[in-house]
Fold this protein.
Amino acid sequence: TGPSNAGSYAIVGSVNEDNYSGYITGDLVIAKKALSATADALAKTYGSANPDATITYSGFENSEDATVLDTAPVATIGADATSGVGDYDITLSAGTDSNYEITTANGKLTVGKAVVAVTADDAAKIYGFAVAAIGFTSTGYVNGEDVNDIDTQPVVTTTATAASDVGAYVTTASGGEDNNYSFTYT
């Protein structure tokens, strides 16, 4: 009777009529159903905790889901909060079940850049004097890093020169570069 689990079942065919009687035996073999388990693609920002790994299944029968599996596949993410920008494997363990033949497909975790906010400092100078170096403040670093850990620090420029008239001039921050950070400027 259905649904029956995978396995081998004895069957008997019989005839019982006025002129004939007899029987024959055999086996009915119910094979395991193919089931695919695929690690879902994930994304996160550099410095953040890994998201929970999820698995998509295809091939369940009779409204079943992963809770019926003897041993469900387990996803392992090959990255952590300190892993730099890039793609990392999400691997699945095999998983086992008496009714399903499980095949697995690995996925990827993409780590994107964290955002550092850079604000150009205000500065002052006296007419006729050169413009001194203008500083900046920056926030958004992760994993205990700071401005000294980035590949190329931002710089702040202005259109003011030693000969500029008295007045206000815009200071502009730009030029920061790093493998694990992108930059926004104010």
Notes: The chain has a mean pLDDT of 94. The two ends are 72 Å apart (CA to CA). The first strand starts at residue 7 and ends at 16.
